[in-house]
Design goal:
The complex is a heterotetramer, with two copies of chain A (450 residues) and two copies of chain B (185 residues). Chain A has 14 helices and 22 strands. In chain A, the strands form six sheets. Chain A has an eight-stranded antiparallel beta sheet with strand order 13-12-9-10-11-14-21-19, sandwiched between helices. In chain A, strands 3-2-1-4-5 form a five-stranded parallel beta sheet, with helices on both faces. A three-stranded antiparallel beta sheet of chain A has the order 7-6-8, covered by helices on one side. Chain A is globular, with a radius of gyration of 22 Å. Chain B is built from one helix and eleven strands. Chain B has a five-stranded mixed beta sheet, with no helix packed on it. The chains are: A alpha+beta (450), B mainly beta (185). Chains A and C meet through helix 1, strand 19 and helix 11 of A and helix 1, strand 19 and helix 11 of C.
């Protein structure tokens, strides 16, 4: 096992890694930017190294400085957390070349899964469903109609060079498709200098369901069931839960099996997440793999009783997982609310600043993971996540009740937070009745404000 | 999931109250002690005795007495016997220091028990005391009903009744101010 | 279900009850003494009523004031917590006569179990082993020898009127017994004016193991397995855990079955605890029933996933438990450390005072139940418990690691606490190796200081 | 269960440190801000530049500079090129206000990167600079090894070397003071 791990991240996930290491008897080297110099979790590390100024590109994203800190700090391994360098295959390669263990998948597995097209190809080869669509670009209107008929309407036209919704059109039938193809192609040409368009089935009001996987270097690959992350606003997850409500058992099991097949085909080990969308008829389609630990990993920890961080460190050290699929029996229902320093009443404007007072909720079924403490200054340089409130109860309705109780107990003074939004969301009819998909929050917000 | 609400028949006793979904109260929350301090400063400067601010679910109420002496209603030696008398509620009289004034000395008679406050012995009877009455320590000033027992509460102090602080039929808690007496009259 | 419950207690258990009620949508009336007027948990209650001055005998123990507060506060039920009026059968009777539900067993069941002799008789009748001893008083030296031989040496001589160790003697053989009987009898006469002595088997270095039971008013009675509370100092529990380490499965199951038999025989419903001592040969003997929720109930909640407070309220309202024994499958290992405002370095002197700052630990498997917050003044009038730190992990060694990590994270400034003692205890060889009994802490403390 | 210990080769940068089993630090704990404030007051009164108190696991260290200007080692225009130069480490020069003095102005040259500090180009070579040397901005004052690359670090300032703050072969972090230069010489 490692004697000393460098934590190449900040905030709650840095604290999460430090906690796991302290329990395992592993020393930690925490790196930080100048903006995080006074963060209270640094006191829990065995060594603290400043790697640069506030700007992430000059500190947390600087491969040379992180590696150098690992070398002067005598760390044998680096935990990248999420974000920053966590899915950077080049960084993983540099770690390997410096004889430092990167706590995550191999660079090869990351590359195989990091590119969306090669990941989709891998998925299809492993018998994992992807959103049906054109194999390549659509070259003519006739071609578009032929393909759309074969995959079924409605369809989504997407610019191959695109992003941010430009060159994107939905078409419900042949007639609409002809015009849409023209428009999308022209828009793509104008926006990206590339008129190339491809077509895939348009999934209306999908759910975002992801499978937590965990593998070792000795051929064991298991899943820790699913998380439902449909409760999003502008593609930002707000609430995650496990199990996914209203998901048929057969679908759930098929998704888990598909995720394990794909991960095994990619030669994956470590913790990772296979993301799917699920349509209104409970068909599921592979979207991408997140080759890292995720913000919402605690909900899977609560229902399975397995510490994902410790497991991730153990398998990175070459240990056997020591678990088989049958050992992983989910119990009850877990929900996580992301507590951000944002003002929901002011269009989610970030609210950095000094936290004057904080009272963490406690009691049965409540877990609060936060790097904040009274006196902590939320820096304006990074994301606004200041804590994760996680609850675990035998049932979903019980979990909602505990979450509402805990949110009301949580007191954070000095900065505005998303706590009021969560209370409203929990009490909203769509969430309460589990009629959730990735579009419901925005529709509900629009309805609530009109 | 039913959000719990502040109850209507809240008994007094807290100076600053805030309930409900204010869990993430920012700098402007009712629990902001700095704001409370600023308010207190304001009160001192302008010699205010109470500030009560409310907005939506939030409420800040601050009271500031002049020279107030708190007297438990049955707390003075020689106070007359009530129908039933609660024992063990005999805190010492708090003598207020001089120079603290907003005029005269006022003695506050407080409840020695938890129960329901009645100003008279029955719906048609006259009130035991009214503002302006001169009273002696053994004078019954009210009845407090607790566990079906009607406890006559003696004043415990002599003077003139300045104010009656509780509505007829309202619940009172231990130590709650019942009436104000000016002992110099 | 109740609309409104009065909480006739203070501190962490009052907060625990309020939390359960908030999750169940039940309003709460919190009573408090003048010493607790500014306690932060009162802000979570729907109504707050001061019932008297600091002295418990004039406030929390005053039946008339508590009942009166329930009446003016329109509470339909009273939760007594632990201590104070919780095991007062007269109080339970007064509640009944006032048409207020006492959340606990019936006065009759409390009376049957409250008296040690009748509880022992009930246990024997239900086939539950008690410590072997004389049926009544020992009238002569010959009688003492005859009885001692029949129950086996060593034996314990106890004054029937006794308490506090006076008139108590251990005898290892016939010879010692003769002198011991004389001395004990004379001492009892001098101390209590009653020379009556009885004899029971002396259990050396026993473990304290208790079974959590839970019953409804419809004939369902289940157990939630055991807690080991052997880690005590001067009969004060310091650390509780579940399962009891090194307890053979057969013993464990026999104890659980015995506890359920006894509770059923007593006509018990509500949550309760059947206490046993277990000798070095794993024989177990009934000691007493605690007819209330206990301080250490969270360890059973963690391993079973069942919220005991909510269940207790539900069965008091006449609902069915909705659980059968097979539903209650323990998972992993839970440990609780009682955090007291005491100075372990100064002979456990209580340290009331103002808490300047508190940082609660978080993360996987950590629960912190505490009514304290920054600015809270620990009053000198009541017990010194200011929080309970509970951890849950798959294994005992994992739980110990998490507890040590969490204790090191917990920061309480302003008052001295028992945190350093717990860290030392967790690291001590007897605790670590699970060689625990009710005497080990004092032997270990004596050894550490010599 | 292995208690984690503060590591021996801790790098500097925190002004008050407390590690280990001080979880329940009482009023006298190292995190007691009031004590820190009292110590700072004491330092100001007696013009101390550092206090370092240790007892068992506890440690309080407070440093206080005179008129100190912090200069990143490669942060000044015209600084000579090192073998490899880290980018993006160009904080502005902090001009110290007057009247803050404990004598002359001192400029602190700080590390632009994380790595290992060397005073000379090899074990047998002479130190790049020693106390008393007059230096120019482009003068190499040390080498910092990071990822097997030896980075020559220029002074970035001219003046006389007053102190060298890091031991040969010691690890340094970003922003760590390396040497003090008196620019008036």
């Amino acid at each position: 096992m490692f004697k000393r791990i460098l934590v190449a991240n900040r905030g709650e996930i840095a604290l999460r890694v430090i906690r796991a290491c302290r329990e395992m008897g592993i020393e930690t080297v925490a790196v930080h930017s100048e903006a995080d110099r006074d963060a209270p979790y640094l006191e829990l590390a065995d060594e603290v190294i400043c790697v640069g100024p506030a700007r992430a590109a000059d500190s947390y994203l600087r491969i040379d400085r992180i590696i150098s800190a690992a070398e002067v700090g005598n760390a044998q391994a680096i935990h990248p957390g999420y974000g920053f360098l966590s899915e950077n295959a080049h960084f993983a390669e540099v770690c390997r070349s410096c004889d430092i263990t990167f706590i995550g998948p191999t660079p090869e597995a990351m590359q195989r899964l990091g590119d969306k097209n090669s990941a989709r190809a891998l998925a299809r080869a492993a018998g994992v469903p992807t959103v049906p669509g054109s194999d390549g670009l659509v070259t003519s209107e006739e071609d578009a109609v032929r393909i759309a008929r074969s995959i079924g309407f409605p369809v989504l036209l997407k610019a191959t060079a695109g992003g941010g919704g430009k060159g994107m059109r939905v078409a419900a039938n042949d007639l609409a498709l002809a015009g849409a193809w023209q428009q999308a192609s022209a828009e793509a040409q104008a926006a990206f200098g590339n008129p190339g368009i491809y077509i895939e089935r348009y999934v209306e009001r999908p759910r975002h369901v992801e499978i937590q996987i965990l593998g070792d270097q000795h051929g064991t690959m298991v899943h820790l069931w699913e998380r439902d992350c449909s409760t999003q606003r502008r593609h930002q997850k707000l609430i995650e839960e496990s199990p996914s409500p209203r998901l048929p058992t057969a679908t759930r099991e098929a998704m888990c099996a598909a995720a394990v097949r794909l991960a095994a085909a990619a030669g994956y080990h470590s913790a990772g997440t296979v993301e799917f969308i699920v349509d209104q008829q409970d068909n599921f389609y592979f979207i991408e793999v997140n080759a890292r630990i995720q913000v919402e990993h605690p909900v899977s920890e609560m229902v399975t009783g397995i510490d994902l961080l410790k497991a991730q460190i153990r398998v990175a050290a070459g240990e056997r997982l020591g678990l088989v699929q049958d050992d992983i029996r989910p119990r009850g229902h877990a929900i996580e609310c992301r507590i951000n320093a944002e003002d929901p009443a002011a269009n989610f404007r970030p609210c950095p600043g000094r936290i004057e007072r904080i009272i963490a909720p406690g009691g049965f079924g409540v877990r609060f993971d936060s790097h904040a403490a009274a006196g902590y200054v939320v820096p304006p340089n990074y994301d606004s996540l200041i804590g994760k409130l996680i609850v675990h109860q035998p049932t979903r309705s019980g979990a909602i009740e505990t979450m509402a109780r805990a949110l009301r107990e949580l007191r954070i003074e000095g900065v505005r937070t998303t706590v009021p939004l969560h209370l409203d969301l929990l009490a909203s009819a769509p969430f309460h009745e589990a009629r959730i998909d990735t579009t419901f929050v925005e529709r509900w917000l629009a309805g609530a404000s009109s | 999931m039913k959000p719990t609400k502040a109850s209507e028949n809240k008994t007094a006793g807290k100076t600053a109250e805030g309930k409900g979904a204010d869990a993430s109260a920012g700098t402007g929350g009712v629990f902001d002690e700095r704001r409370v301090k600023r308010l207190i400063k304001l009160m001192k400067r302008h010699d205010l005795s109470e500030i009560d601010l409310q907005q939506a679910d939030e409420r800040v109420r601050i009271r500031r007495g002049g020279a107030v002496v708190t007297v438990p209603a049955d707390g003075l030696p020689g106070a007359g016997a009530a129908t039933a008398r609660a024992a063990g509620a005999l805190p010492a009289v708090n003598a207020a220091g001089p120079g603290d004034a907003d005029g005269g000395r006022v003695v506050v008679v407080t409840s020695p028990m938890v129960g329901t406050f009645y100003r008279a012995s029955g719906p048609d009877a006259a009130s035991f005391v009214k503002v302006g009455d001169r009273i002696e320590p053994e004078k019954t000033v009210c009845i407090i009903e607790a566990m079906k027992v009607f406890n006559e509460i003696p004043a415990g102090v002599s003077g003139q009744v300045v104010a009656i602080l509780v509505e007829n039929g309202a619940p009172v808690e231990f130590g709650q101010p019942l009436l104000k007496v000016d002992p110099e009259h």
